[in-house]
Amino acid sequence: MPLYYDDDQAMLADSASDFMREEGAIAKQLRHWRDRDCKDGFGHGLWEQFGEMGFTGILLSEEDGGLGMGQVEANIVLEEIGANLTPSPFLTSSVLAATALKHGSDDIKGRWLPDMVAGKNVYAVAIDEGAKHRPEKIACKAEKSGNGFKLTGKKDFVVHGASAEMIVVAARTSGSDSDADGITLFAVPQDAANMKHDAARLVDSSVASHITFDGVELDGDAVIGEVDGGRDVLNAVLRAGRVGAAAEGVGVARGAMDMTVDYLKQRKQFGKLIGEFQALQHRAAHLYSEVEIARAVVMKAAQMLDGGSEKADLMASVAKAKVAKAAGLAVREGVQMHGGIGMTDEYDIGFYMKRDRALQEFLGDQYYHAGRVAELSGY
Fold first, then answer.
1. Could you tell me which residues come within 8 angstroms of residue 14 by beta carbon, excluding any fewer than 6 positions away?
2. How far apart are CA 3 and CA 268, in angstroms?
3. What is the 8-class DSSP label of residue 142?
4. Which of 47, 139, 146, 255 could be 83's S-S partner, Cβ–Cβ 3.0 to 4.6 Å?
5. Model confidence over 279-313: pLDDT tens digits?
6. Three-class SS of residue 367?
7. Are 119 and 48 in contact (CB under 8 A)?
């Protein structure tokens, strides 16, 4: 497939760009909620606007109340979210949780999807159990208890966990901690007894939770998919989330680059615009090339995911690793080319560096995914 948007995708990109630039701008959202020490880290009013725009159901079928689109379209929205640093639960709710819920029963879809599509509910996904992303090892247990299950264990760095009306939890229902099989996904409601949140504000001003489950009672209807057969669903969630996070990372890189190029056209030194200095021109040109390569990789990964390619898993890790390098370069160059003022809170360029840092760790950093690329390629 060609690595550019078709007419419908281009229209979506224009709509998402205008919306994020006007409603999701840094001053209006990120700075606003950060300066008020908002416990959620985002605005629920904006999330409702996401629902009105139809963004919230972009990955869901029309039968489930969504738009029936794919990962390419979700990535279009995510890139604009990244470019404007718009704080929202789109990645956790409309990509990760929505992908999990698509594999659920009609009852579980009917319970949770409508309010998410309407922009009323926020969902989170709890996978990791340590400082680093290691989904291969899941120790949090769900043991049979009457007609349901009893959930015991912990999950770390659950983004929007304390704000979520429901959390998709990956737990072990059989086998040992490192077994591929024996995983089950559960939809755990916010008001579940014996669930404790220890909220932590991350470097990018978003809020994550360290969650402890101390015998949380769940009925059988909370199961998403099949008992002991959740690894395939979890892998689908991870693929969508990784490609989505990479798309947001491309947006962060693009936003930082655009802000830096604008600064090069305005700032004068020694009586000349600093953008006229050849050394900075070379660095800007190199940065542009890296960002465009990263965008192409992410688009290819999304297309392969939508097409059901057997190599989609490999390409998701290629995209995540490549974007981490390109976005890291973009934010570092941005701060350096702004000079000393780039280190101050007065200028927005520093926010891009912070968001990039959080995104790099989310669902695996570049080293984790470089290792996966090697393994999946037979090394």
1. none
2. 38
3. E
4. 255
5. 989 999 999 999 999 999 999 999 999 999 999 99
6. helix
7. yes
